[in-house]
Each structure stands twice: as C-alpha cells, then as structure tokens.
C-alpha cells in the first residue's frame, strides 16, 4: 500500500538544548496523515563524528505524549542511537476512534524526518514500538524499505479485544477475584463494548502485517508482562514471520521486568517510572550486529501463561446493545416510576394499595439500587482497566458481592409482588393494577438481564 499524505514539515530547526549526560535535545515538527502537524523531540549524542543508527519510537495506547518514552529514549541516545519521540495525534485518535494504518503512516513521516538528518545513518534507521505502537509499526515496516529494522516491546499478537479481555483476567486473578465477575469483565463487558461501537479497532488482526515484514525483527517482552500475553503473542508473531518467509528475527524475554521492560516491585502489576541500569544495552548491540550479518531466527523459552486468550463471535440477538438499553429504560420507568407515582398520590391525599405496597416498595428499591449500582461499578472498573476493584471477600469484590445480594433480593421481591398483585388485582383500581403490573414486568425482565451480566451467577 502506498504511503500518501505524509511529508516532513519544513520548519526552522529549534536550537539543540543540552540534555543530561552529554546528549542534545532538538524540538522538531513534521506532518502526518491529513496534514496533521506532529511535534517531537530528537535526542542524540553531542558528539556526531560519524552517522549513527536511529529509531522512531512509537508509544503505547493513549495520548501520554513523548514524555512517556523519555527514559527509554535517553538510554538509547547514551548508547549512540539517535531517537525521535513525538506526541501522538489527537485528531482521529481518541477513545472511540483510531486507525493503526494512519498511525503507521505518521511513524513513516517521522522516519523521513530522521533520514534527513546529517547525524543519522540511513542504512541503520529503524522503528521501536511499545504495546499498541506495535500494531502500527509492522504496517509501517511493510510499506517502506527505508525501515531497516524493527524492534518491539510488549507487542500483542492477538486482537485488541482478546488482549484486553486477558489483561482483565490477569489483574482480577492477581486481586484474588474469581467467579462470575471475572466472566463479566473478561467476556460480557468486552463483547458489549464491541457491539456498541465503543471499542475502536477491537478485532484488528496484527498477524497479516507481521507476515509482510521483511526487515530484521527484535521482538521483546518482559518476563513479568501482565498485559500482552508474551507466550501467546510471541507464538503468533513468530508463525506470521515464518509464514512470510522472514527468518531474521530474535524473540527475547527479559527477566524481572514488566510490560514496557521497566522495573517492577509488584510482579508486573505496577507502573514504576524506573528502567534497569542495563536498559538499551542489548538493543544497541543487536543493531550494531546488523552491520555484519542479518540475525538467524532465535527464540527464548517463553514464560507460562495462565489461560489462552478468548475469541469473540458476533453478538446473539439477546446481546443487542439496543435491547439492553431498552431493558435499562424499562428498569428506570418501572423501579423509579413506582415511588414517584406513590409520592404524587400522597401529595394528592390518596393512599396506595395496602396488600401489595410492602413487596412493591422492596422491589422498586432493590431493583433501582442494583441496576444503578451495577452500572456505576462496571464503568468504574472499566475506566481503571480492572486495576482497581476494591476489597475482595470470598473471591468477589465486596461491591460486586453487595450487588449480587441485592439482585437476589430483587428477584424475591419480584416474585412476592407478582403473587400479591395477582391475588389482589380485583381489589385494585385500574391505575394501581397498571403501575404494579409495570413494576412486576420490570422485575421479571430483571431476571434474565441480571443473569446475563453475572449478578445471579456464583
């Protein structure tokens, strides 16, 4: 596929500012796809007696900016490698929209900027990509022979949806969570976000791009990577490279480091901003070795994996996001509407239906609290990527356990209300029968909904 709409922005170069340890830092700008101007920093050794190897560095998911890669970039620059880090585009890349093909072309625009520098050796110019960046980097490498090598850290071999689901599983298992909540997060919530169009590029398959990569590859994972499933991802990527006829790859697992090869004090589940003292040594040696000969296929033994990543099939009719939205609207009308109409009746001096009132009140209260509490807690856990679930008791987050108890109470109240309504329906006025019937209907619809979301499962 041809690269279009990308070119280096010709602007006066910012003066090089002295960086720590004899490095220079130059602020640069270049144009990505669609004319979007991207801003970055080139770190290089102050001494430029000869052209040096260089890498464009692609950050992981989100828009954390070039500061996210600063420690790694400095480590490479101290070892004689010129680095470009840049702020990812915000136009066309956000929570609900992203395109790895566009990000790949942005990276190639950065590569052209580096290629134009006098201190860069075009024959030793490559890409370094972290996590989500490793979805885009193989696409870029397959599109341009100017990319002479590819280095990845924490590359994901399966779809983003499967990786996200497995990451949730890892974090929940680490927190001591088991049972229905794990399935809700690992499968149900991911499927629903895909179906609702809230998970961009969810089913992107990176393997075809890897199969088109012809350059030497250094693919690395931390031994304590809890996000990219190193064992499964490395196997997928290796098979893709073999399928494409590329035998010049090194698959490496780095001991005692996490997803981004940084130091960890919690088995890979933390985010410490510290790199090992030897960070960059292996990469620099590997790049230097390319001058003499291309590497033969080399694969380290992979760390164990708790469970294979899931696969995601199209949603069944009962999983339609519109159907679930309709159920939630029904719950609001039924559960919240009952006490509101009761308040209006009292304001007008009317009394309710004494034989049914107690169970109906319980149903309205427990149903409303359960559905509202479930939505709040689910969105909270999704927002924290399952890294914060609160206290855990008997294998369940306490908040989830409370919601399950309330869900059972809602079912009991539904049965009591339905039986009471049926028993006394002839004694009730039509408006009372209508609002109690609506309340009971909400309770009946609650049962399959709560079962689907795991609230009524162990």
Automatic annotation (TrEMBL):
A molecular function (GO) term:
hydrolase activity
Q: What is this protein called?
A: Alpha/beta hydrolase
Q: Which UniProt keywords apply?
A: Hydrolase, Membrane, Signal, Transmembrane, Transmembrane helix
**Gene3D superfamilies hit by this protein:** alpha/beta hydrolase
Tell me the domain of life. Bacteria
InterPro entries on file: AB_hydrolase_Est10, AB_hydrolase_fold
Query: Quick one: signal sequence residues?
Result: 1-18
Residue ranges annotated as transmembrane are 322-341, 362-386, 398-421, 433-455
Report the SUPFAM superfamilies cross-referenced here. Answer: alpha/beta-Hydrolases
């Amino acid at each position: 596929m041809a690269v279009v709409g990308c070119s280096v922005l010709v602007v006066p170069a910012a003066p090089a500012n002295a960086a720590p340890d004899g490095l220079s830092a130059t602020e640069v700008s270049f144009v990505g796809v669609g004319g979007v101007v991207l801003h970055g920093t080139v770190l290089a050794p102050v001494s430029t007696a000869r052209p040096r190897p260089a890498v464009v560095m692609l950050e992981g998911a989100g828009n954390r900016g070039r500061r996210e890669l600063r420690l790694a970039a400095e480590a490479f620059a101290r070892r004689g490698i010129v680095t470009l880090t840049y702020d990812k585009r915000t136009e066309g890349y956000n929570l609900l929209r992203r395109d790895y093909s566009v990000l790949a072309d942005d990276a190639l625009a950065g590569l052209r900027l580096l290629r134009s520098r006098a201190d860069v050796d075009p024959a030793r110019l490559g890409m370094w990509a972290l996590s989500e960046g490793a979805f885009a980097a193989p696409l870029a490498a397959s599109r341009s022979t100017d990319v002479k090598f590819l280095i990845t850290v924490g590359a994901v071999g399966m779809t983003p949806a499967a990786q996200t689901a497995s990451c949730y599983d890892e974090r929940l298992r680490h927190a001591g969570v088991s049972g229905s909540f794990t399935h809700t997060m690992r499968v149900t919530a991911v499927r629903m976000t895909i179906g609702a169009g809230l998970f961009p590029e969810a089913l992107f398959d990176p393997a075809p791009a890897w199969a088109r990569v012809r350059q030497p590859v250094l693919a690395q994972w931390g031994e304590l990577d809890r996000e990219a499933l190193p064992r499964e991802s490395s196997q997928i990527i290796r098979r893709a490279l073999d399928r494409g006829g590329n035998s010049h790859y090194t698959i490496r697992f780095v001991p005692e480091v996490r997803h981004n090869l940084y130091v960890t004090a919690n088995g890979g589940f933390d985010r410490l901003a510290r790199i090992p003292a030897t960070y960059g040594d292996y990469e620099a040696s590997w790049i230097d070795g390319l001058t003499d000969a291309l590497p033969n296929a080399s694969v380290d033994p992979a760390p164990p994996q708790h469970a294979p990543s899931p696969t995601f099939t199209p949603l069944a009719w009962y999983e339609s996001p519109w159907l679930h939205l309709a159920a939630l609207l029904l719950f609001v009308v039924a559960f919240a509407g009952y006490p509101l109409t009761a308040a209006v009746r009292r304001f007008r001096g009317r009394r309710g239906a004494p034989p049914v009132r107690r169970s109906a009140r319980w149903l309205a209260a427990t149903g409303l609290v359960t559905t509202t509490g479930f939505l709040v807690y689910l969105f909270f856990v999704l927002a924290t990527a399952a890294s914060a679930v609160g206290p855990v008791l008997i294998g369940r987050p306490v908040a989830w356990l409370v919601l399950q108890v309330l869900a059972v109470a809602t079912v009991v109240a539904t049965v009591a209300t339905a039986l009471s309504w049926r028993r006394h329906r002839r004694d009730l006025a039509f408006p009372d029968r209508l609002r109690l019937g609506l309340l009971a209907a909400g309770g009946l619809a609650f049962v399959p909904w709560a079962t689907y979301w795991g609230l009524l499962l162990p």
